[in-house]
Design goal:
The chain has about 675 residues and is mainly α. It is about 55% helix and about 5% strand. It contains 18 helices and ten strands. A hairpin with a 6-residue loop joins strand 6 and strand 7. It is globular and about 100 Å long. It starts with a strand and ends with a strand.
Length: about 675
């Protein structure tokens, strides 16, 4: 049964039909009948805030009956069913696609690696970019006021998803910062308030992590629906770097590339063995730094320099120097490990970009978590007994979890030092260094132009003029921003999330530092994207990938570490035996984990209205694009259900004015179909 019909009066009738559409067929008596139907799509119970036709995405199809102008949304900016970002995706796809798929079979990354091309990039649209900057790069707007839709329509859904996550995370940090400030204020009062502040801060932040992550899952699901990214990973193309021998697919029988899973597994195991070695080397360096610190703290060089009064405590010279050394070491090793992990993951030969990134995330998280937090774990739980045990044979037997009197203070000052070093080095690498590099390039280009003899004759004048630099040449001088750059940005946020939650009992101001840093980060990253880098090739994304699982793991570890610090190193348990401390730790930990499980069960990962709209999308695409036949409906009178005629909504604010809703007989007006963002 055709779903797009032309009525005798020339009007088109679209599915889903409004109340009153005609169903023709035979009834049980074998009589040919034609009856009006009252089964239009209408939300009588108010289950969704979405009109049924909003955010309905489907693939673009050249079938003749789908070429009516009311089928797909027309975007005013491009006067086309494709946005500029969609056209860029198509261009890149055509260049890289196999000739069998009418592509050019250009291995763009290989051409760049061999030096055959200096750069391959789309040009910035100055007008569109200026509009985004006016809305985005503002000094005081809150994180939730970012023009996310404009960002994803210009840079692609993958970049848009990053800034959506950054904005959501920064918004929730406002609440965490309030908890931290209140706890820090109580700690300043000292005495019993210090004990209560430590416990309350750790407990509240353990629950905060779950609330934030569950809220983010809902935001992510809503963005996936509204951006047309549902099922994106299921249709993902193979990476151009993927290598395999050609075989016949056991599923379709068509030619397919095959890489033996056993070979891939061997390469992955080899990669993780190398990561273990890297972790071992870094741990040895950290151990050496702490050993020197412990030795100098216990046996100050009083014979050479009289600073014995500064040797103990968090402000002692050895402690300050150690904190700076550790903070710099963490930043340096994290930066050096990234290209090493990337090379290892490339060798593993993953088929899709999603598989590649998931493996890279696992490697980076494993190394950076140990490297970034290992020193904090040592200071929080082992520095006391080991420092005092230098020279003793078995310090752990008598000084288990004994880090008094400066355990929590040492953790807080080390964490504060790491935060400050991260902010300073991060802004230097992302803002100051690129800005200075651009100044040097501009100066060199001006000198080159002065020495350039290339001239051309101006047709409008008899004078000779110097050659003008084209926009493509100007943008060539900017830095690249690829998939690994956004990977680094995610990695920085995950490490920061760990700092803000794992040891918040010792340093309640950690969420405050993170909140301030992210307020700056939004503007730094926005400026970098708009001013300092080439326009990246747009990529699709339906979620933040394995980073979400990594955040969940960090949140669980945060519950454990804060429970340990509350029950093992807090002043409240100074005079309590080790057995009672252990019992208190187990009880507190499972109470918090139980509360987290309850919150995860109560809060839906996918909001109900989003889930309903996804079902609508699947139904409408099946009927309109796939052209599936209607279900059989009994034509007897008692089978008809009468409902009120639904309201007619305009499909989308970006539709052309002449394609909006109309009267009942206007056919497709107001029932438009948006193009799939990935087509």
């Amino acid at each position: 049964r055709n779903l797009l019909r032309k009525k005798p009066d020339g009007e088109w009738k679209w599915y889903p039909r409004r109340a009153g559409w005609l169903l023709t067929g035979e009834n049980e008596a074998g009589e040919y009948v034609e009856r009006e139907q009252d089964n239009a799509i209408v939300d009588t119970e108010g289950q969704s805030d979405y009109p049924y036709e909003r955010f309905i995405y489907g693939k673009f199809d050249k079938r003749p009956d789908l070429q009516h102008p009311s089928v797909y949304v027309t975007y005013p900016a491009s006067n086309s069913i494709f946005r500029s970002v969609d056209r860029l995706k198509l261009i890149e796809g055509i260049m890289e696609a196999d000739p069998k798929k009418r592509g050019c079979n250009l291995q763009l990354k290989e051409l760049l690696a061999r030096g055959a091309c200096l750069a391959i990039y789309p040009l910035h649209d100055d007008d569109e970019l200026q509009t985004i900057q006016d809305r985005w790069l503002t000094p005081c707007d809150p994180p939730w006021a970012q023009p996310i839709v404009m960002v994803k329509d210009y840079f692609g859904e993958k970049v848009g998803m990053y800034f959506l996550f950054l904005g959501t995370y920064s918004t929730w940090l406002f609440y965490a910062a309030g908890i931290g400030i209140a706890s820090f204020g109580l700690e300043l009062l000292g005495g019993q308030y210090l004990t209560w502040a430590t416990a309350a801060c750790g407990i509240c932040m353990s629950l905060w992590t779950t609330l934030f992550l569950e809220c983010w899952k809902g935001e992510e699901a809503r963005a996936k629906l509204e951006w047309g990214m549902t099922g994106f990973e299921e249709t993902e193309e193979d990476r151009t770097e993927f290598e395999g021998r050609e075989i016949h697919s056991p599923v379709t029988g068509l030619p397919d590339a095959y890489f033996p899973p056993r070979d891939k597994a061997r390469r992955i195991v080899g990669s993780y063995l190398q990561i273990v070695l890297c972790i071992f080397y870094v741990s040895c360096v950290n151990a050496g730094i702490f050993y020197v610190h412990a030795y100098v703290s216990r046996y100050p060089l009083r014979n050479y320099v009289d600073f014995h009064h500064l040797a103990d405590g968090p402000f002692g010279v050895p402690t300050v120097v150690t904190n700076l050394a550790l903070a710099l070491l963490i930043q340096a090793t994290n930066a050096l490990f990234m290209p090493f992990a990337t090379r290892m993951t490339k060798v593993e030969n993953h088929r899709t970009e999603t598989d590649f990134e998931d493996q890279l995330i696992a490697k980076v998280f494993l190394f950076q978590f140990v490297n970034s937090n290992g020193a904090l774990f040592y200071v929080a739980m082992a520095q006391g007994p080991l420092t005092r045990g230098i020279g003793d044979k078995q310090p752990w037997k008598t000084r288990r979890f004994d880090c008094a009197p400066y355990c929590l203070e040492h953790v807080s000052y080390l964490l504060g030092t790491i935060f400050i070093v991260r902010v300073v080095l991060g802004n230097w690498n992302e803002v100051v260094a690129p800005f200075l590099a651009r100044l040097r390039k501009d100066a060199a280009r001006r000198r080159g132009h002065d020495e350039d003899d290339a001239e051309y004759e101006d047709p409008a004048s008899t004078s000779i003029r110097k050659r003008q630099v084209s926009p493509a040449e100007e943008q060539f001088e900017k830095d690249d921003y690829g998939s690994l750059d956004i990977f680094d940005d995610y990695g920085e946020l995950v490490v920061q999330f760990g700092y803000a939650t794992l040891f918040v009992s010792a340093f309640p101001l950690a969420p405050v530092f993170a909140c301030v840093n992210n307020f700056i980060e939004i503007r730094v990253d926005g400026w970098k994207m708009c001013q300092n880098t080439k326009r990246p090739w747009p990529k699709g994304a339906e979620d933040i990938g394995t980073w979400e699982s990594v955040l969940t793991v960090v949140a669980i570890l945060g519950t454990i570490t804060n429970s340990i610090m509350i029950t093992q190193t807090s002043p409240a348990f100074t005079n309590v035996t080790s057995s009672y401390r252990l019992v208190a730790f187990v009880v507190l930990e499972w109470i918090l984990i139980g509360a987290k499980i309850v919150l995860m069960s109560v809060i839906d990962d996918v909001p109900e209205d989003v889930e309903l709209q996804e079902q609508r999308q699947e139904f409408l695409v099946t009927k309109i694009i796939v052209d599936e036949a209607d279900e059989e409906i009994d034509l007897e009178d008692d089978e008809f259900i009468e409902i009120d005629e639904p309201k007619v909504y305009q499909s989308d604010p970006c539709l052309r004015e002449d394609a909006g809703g109309g009267d009942e007989d206007d056919g497709p007006g107001g029932e438009k179909k948006e193009p799939d963002a990935e087509e």
